[in-house]
Design a protein that fits this description.
By secondary structure, the protein is mainly β. It has strands at about 1-5, 10-15, 20-25, 30-40, 45-50, 55-60, 65-70, 75-80, 90-100, 105-110, 115-120. Strands 2, 4, 5, 6, 9, 10 and 11 form a seven-stranded mixed beta sheet that branches. A four-stranded antiparallel beta sheet has the order 1-3-8-7, with no helix packed on it. Strand 5 (about 45-50) and strand 6 form a beta hairpin.
């Protein structure tokens, strides 16, 4: 089994910063792409940013220039540094990883989510 655990969410004022972490553990042989998504009440989950195992990154237009995704492959951990936060960034943030397990099976895994609330 593979587990993803997010941390670092919380309440912050507009213009502030937060850093989310996503630690992967379990029967992991390798991790390909890791990413962050977010979802508000009654809304669809939307893509925020992704990073490949080689460090290539992509961002949604709504966060480009404000958010930075990174990863530490040795720790199987991804990060999302969020700056210049806006009230519209308020959502539950989910970590995603495409993982090859020790038995050679690739699968898509999700964390439980961490709440980010930005006050105006």
């Amino acid at each position: 089994q593979v587990q993803l655990v997010e941390s670092g969410g919380g309440l912050v004022q507009a213009g502030g910063s937060l850093r989310l972490s996503c630690a992967a553990s379990g029967s992991i042989a390798s991790i390909s792409t890791m990413g962050w998504y977010r979802q508000g009440p009654g809304k669809q989950r939307t893509w925020v940013a992704t990073i490949t195992s080689g460090g290539s990154t992509n961002y949604a237009d709504s966060v480009k220039g404000r958010f930075t995704i990174s990863r530490d492959n040795a720790k199987s951990t991804a990060y999302l540094q969020m700056s210049s936060l806006k009230p519209e960034d308020t959502d539950v943030y989910y970590c995603n990883a495409f993982v090859r397990t020790v038995v050679g099976v690739w699968g898509d895994y999700w964390g439980q989510g961490t709440q980010v609330t930005v006050s105006s």
